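check these tokens.
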Amino acid sequence: MTPALKERLDAAAEAGGRSQSQEAEFRLERSFEREALLTDVLALAFGERTAGITIMLAAVLETDGWAALSQSDTQATHWSDDPYASDRAIKGAIEVLEKLRPAGKVVEPSSDPDFRPRVYEQRWTALASIARRPKAGPQRHVQVNQHGYFPYDLKRVFEMLGPDLLERLRRKP
């Protein structure tokens, strides 16, 4: 243990009224409890099934993307910035989604043939317009189209994506 870490542990133990050993055990237990935090938060936000799919997709994007980047000749520092690595990651994610696709023929609803293009356009128009307001505060439950909301702190999501990925999202399909 480094002297700096020991000093921090001692201070935390004293503040909590515990011995150094008890404080170390307390903090280790908390670290194990936090392992489930991401899955619990995603399940709360999206429901169990979509959370599971989201985690699977993220794992495939990361493993395939980083593996491909290690084989690439570019100087990119993240797989999403390398065309080859990004392509491999996307193909991996599509493979997962295809395996999760339910059996059966896809039948477009006959009630509104323009539904999908219209909803898609509304969603991207709304998200892109929000992305263009960088000084706006956190935006929660922004209506994306008549069928749903984007119930997240969009400003934080856009910060996480970074300007280069945001610019890619603004492009018309």
